[in-house]
Amino acid sequence: xxxxxxxxxxxxxxxxxxxxxxxxxxxxxxxxxxxxxxxxxxxxxxxxxxxxxxxxxxxxxxxxxxxxxxxxxxxxxxxxxxxxxxxxxxxxxxxxxxxxxxxxxxxxxxxxxxxxxxxxxxxxxxxxxxxxxxxxxxxxxxxxxxxxxxxxxxxxxxxxxxxxxxxxxxxxxxxxxxxxxxxxxxxxxxxxxxxxxxxxxxxxxxxxxxxxxxxxxxxxxxxxxxxxxxxxxxxxxxxxxxxxxxxxxxxxxxxxxxxxxxxxxxxxxxxxxxxxxxxxxxxxxxxxxxxxxxxxxxxxxxxxxxxxxxxxxxxxxxxxxxxxxxxxxxxxxxxxxxxxxxxxxxxxxxxxxxxxxxxxxxxxxxxxxxxxxxxxxxxxxxxxxxxxxxxxxxxxxxxxxxxxxxxxxxxxxxxxxxxxxxxxxxxxxxx
Length: 431
Prior knowledge:
Number of domains: 2
Number of strands: 23
CATH architecture of the largest domain: Alpha-Beta Barrel
Structural class: alpha/beta
Distance between the termini: 33 Å
Helix content: 25-40%
CATH class of the largest domain: Alpha Beta
Number of helices: 11
């Protein structure tokens, strides 16, 4: 039986400050978003969901212990019910048995915004959690919860420090508001082990929608270019890894609130994953509109145009395709890799025409969302054997195309696709 990741050693930041590892064993973060897992599901359904995700290659589940959001409202009084915490413990046991980390938020950000969690009770709440769950090997903690750090910075700092004290050995991050990053408020702080950004759910043309969730003055706005957040975080907080903790979810309204808008589909969801990872993110977090609220047909709640029962949604396209990226990255020496756009000799473009290039010892990976021709400067590889393969991100199949002659402008033309999307990954092996 395969060892669980923490059995190699506790989860830590690599020496280069870019990735995670278990005692030298690289850990590629592949998370699914299950915010109301503990509140909405019973133990039996949780076991079904967690087993499905583990078999698809996910190794982190993002969930909230006290959850409130549009369409899903957990009564704070429930938190005093011992049966609720017993249920949480049983679900944590299942995740541990399956080899899954749980990236847990003590509470959703709205509890802080409304004053229900404050400087008077926050540390007692962390202590309460520690009395029940400290010592579990598969916990990661996230402060925040879809909220700007500027809302209550000292509170989040205090909670983060107390979590580090009461859960020794656990990594701590911060889940921010849409189109922001934890690095905007907490760069360089010792309680924060890694940064997390939320690239969000808006198109390029939806940057300003005159809504309550528009960006505030001074915040970074990159539209769909989530790879730019990776560059931003590495520039302002160079010793910490980063990850897109909330990109556009599969089957959610573009822009979230207008029911006349289309839904984000699998090719677009793949793009967010490949773009950020090949820019140097420590992994990626996937989400599905039905699963982030565990929507069930016929129930009274449901937001953002949700239309699929979560029991169906766990089988949807993009959710099954994330492992192909993980499998490819873990097949190469990714923790010693870096983005290298300078390799492109032609074909780079703006927005959806952006081409990602990631280089690590013995390998190079390029992602071409639109399937356009591009060129690479491979002149320095002259005299070496360079094998080329196309990989379809929709099915993970590697298709050998032979050896290529390294030149200052080696041109690659992706094959035509007849199924969903036009994206291709080029995988070069250098011997």
